[in-house]
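Sample intake sheet
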Amino acid sequence: MDRKTFLLVVKLCITVVFAGLVWSETTGKIVGVITDKKTGEGLPGANILIEGTKYGAVTDVQGRYLILNVPPGSYSIKAS
């Protein structure tokens, strides 16, 4: 392989690596437990919504919830 072809291959590899980094997303998760104020027991079936987004979850039998792939930022959570 001559020098010109080698440099072209190196440039192509660098471009592919940086393109992947640019388009990759960083997301997080929100986890929690919804409990009854009086008894402290978990509330199953509660709806959890991140206000102003399409993200949400329903609590399990112990009142726990998990919302994945949440973009970075500050959010308000609403339970019903």
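Comment: The chain has a mean pLDDT of 83. The longest helix spans residues 3-23.
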